[in-house]
Specification:
single chain; 406 residues; Growth Hormone, Chain: A; 20 helices; 82% helix
């Protein structure tokens, strides 16, 4: 066997890396739980309180506080390592969900208590989200990054198949509190699997937490690529947040279907996305990142437009398959581009800030949709299409090519 053949990128060589299979297993458990809880909380609010506004507020507060605290989370990850902080977040998430379920079962869960619990839980989420994301380039050789990012992205996609389908089925069969208890058990399992994972050290902290967090913000602000991604991806996620809340309302109120159908639709998105991710992981994206990003966002806009124009259950199901195909390339290109253009010493801080800025549009979009959906579902979907299209424009125009960085 020649040296080039021996070193050729492959998924087999990727999973032969020490600790990588355990990292993926823990990641899959946590992400499946995360996909479940996002949908269960929306269904829970719609069913228990009968309010899209409360559902939007729950989604908003379950995400945004953690995004605001992401610079501090990034500094903690660079300072204290990733595995222990990931486990801490999984434990807090599991306990919080169990608490919500318990209070709901004994009928002691006013809206204020629910919002307070999801807000507190949100604060530690960047520890695991960023921790996992930054472990990948630390333990995986550079020539395997595309394949590692395919596994990373496919972790979201597979979780988006299993999580929503399981969430919808559990809510329909046993109620949201039981679904929350099951989700809490998945977070607990993720914590157990993650214990003792190899955690390569990185240097770059000064010893002072808040100044380190501020330096992470400044690093992203100076980095042309991360700055452009923040504008483009947050705009796209503004539309995705609107669609995420509008779709369950459309299914439950307009179609008259149950939670299991909502879960099935999101599962279809995950199925097609899984195939797209694995195929995209074999493609080198270097030098073509902004084109791929813009094309993926336009594909997402087209799929949401189909839902808006043809609100029929079968057409919507086909649109979700198309949406998954568009999402697969988007994730891999985004992950790989961010890795290539971030100094390894800044992975925790820069990734935490960058991921927070990229995702901030989602909770804002959900909150807006919660207020507007009772007035007009098509208006929300039109706004989502507009945001996805603008995101594509911002990506194509704003993300610098490699020649511009030289």
């Amino acid at each position: 066997m020649t040296s080039s053949t021996h070193d050729a990128p492959s998924y087999g060589r990727l999973f032969a890396i020490a600790g990588f299979p355990r990292l993926v297993a823990s990641m899959m458990l946590a992400r499946t739980a995360g996909q479940m809880v996002s949908l269960v909380l929306v269904l829970f609010a719609l069913q228990r309180y009968g309010s899209a506004e409360i559902a939007g507020a729950v989604t908003f507060l379950s995400i945004l506080p953690g995004l605001v605290g992401s610079p501090v989370a990034g500094a903690l990850l660079d300072r204290h390592g990733r595995t222990r902080l990931m486990v801490l977040d999984y434990v807090i998430a599991g306990c919080s969900l169990a608490l919500i379920a318990t209070l709901a079962l004994v009928d002691l869960l006013p809206v204020a208590a629910l919002l307070a619990i999801v807000t507190i839980t949100s604060l530690t989420q960047p520890l695991s989200n960023t921790g996992v994301r930054t472990l990948f380039p630390l333990i995986v050789p550079r020539h395997l990054w595309e394949r590692a990012n395919a596994i990373d992205s496919n972790g979201y996609v597979v979780a988006s198949i299993v999580g929503p389908a399981l969430a919808g089925a559990l809510v329909a069969a046993f109620g949201a509190p039981v679904a929350l208890v099951f989700t809490a058990s998945l977070f607990s399992a993720a914590a157990v699997v993650a214990l003792g994972l190899r955690d390569p050290a990185t240097k770059g902290e000064t010893g002072r937490l808040l100044p380190d967090a501020w330096r992470g913000l400044a690093y992203v602000a100076r980095n042309r690529t991360l700055r452009a991604l923040a504008l483009a991806v947050s705009t796209s996620n503004l539309g995705w947040g609107m669609f995420f809340l509008a779709l369950p309302v459309l299914v439950l109120q307009r179609f008259g279907r149950g939670p299991e159908f909502v879960g099935l639709l999101f599962a279809l998105l995950g199925i097609s996305g899984s195939v797209a991710v694995l195929l995209m992981g074999r493609v080198s994206t270097r030098g073509r990142e902004r084109q791929w990003l813009a094309l993926a966002m336009l594909g997402e806009a087209a799929a949401i437009a189909i839902v808006m124009l043809y609100p029929d259950p079968l057409i919507v199901a086909l649109a979700m398959l198309a949406l998954g195909i568009a999402t697969g390339p988007f994730d891999i290109v985004l992950f790989t581009l961010r890795q290539r253009r971030t100094d390894p010493a800044w992975l925790g801080r820069a990734f935490a800030v960058s991921m927070a800025l990229n995702f901030v549009g989602f909770p804002i979009g959900s909150a807006i949709a919660g207020a507007v959906v009772p007035i007009s579902i098509p208006l929300v979907l039109l706004a989502a299409v507009t945001c996805e299209t603008l995101g594509a424009v911002f990506a194509f125009v704003g993300v610098p090519g490699e020649d511009a960085l030289a």
